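dude i think i finally got it to work??
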Amino acid sequence: MKKLIPILFLCSLSSVSFAKPQTYTVLNGGGIDDLGLGLKNNKGKEYHVYCDQKCGDWFEYDEESQSETLKQKYIGKKVMAEIKFENNRDRIAGPGANETLYFIKQIKFIK
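look at this
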């Protein structure tokens, strides 16, 4: 029994960090130093995920906020995306290298 609990714990971690592609709805997006998206899955859970160079030309510069914002035409659209909860490893400005964040591994719009 003592060996079973750590094994079950490791299995649960791997299912979170190695998620398969799922369908999400794009809620919002943008950023100053690092671009990200707000996504919602079919069960209603919302995620803030960093693009990490995986998003396309989906953003435009907003003079008022002096940041990039998601183009209006993409809000509410469905995407197929694979996201992973990983250590930052200095990809995102601000959080430490060992802080865990959601990152997009692949993403495409569903027609």
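The helical segments are 4-17.
im so relieved honestly
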